[in-house]
Amino acid sequence: RGNVKLLSVLVRFFDFNCGPVTRVLDVHSVPGETAEILTEYLLKSIDKWQLRDKVIALCADNASTNFFFSR
Known about the structure:
alpha+beta, two-stranded antiparallel ribbon, 1 helix, 2 strands, elongated
């Protein structure tokens, strides 16, 4: 009721000049919390930043809806 659901997409990488770096790529307002919705919006960010072939790991909390990624 009036709540806004947000999905934050962050990236962490190693920069040889600075060391480990964390950046916020996107913050999406999402219409729900199903695995399908979260996957859709995460893949939008990955594709927007052309990272599909560069992602080597995913970290999420332990909610079961975070682990659908079947595409």
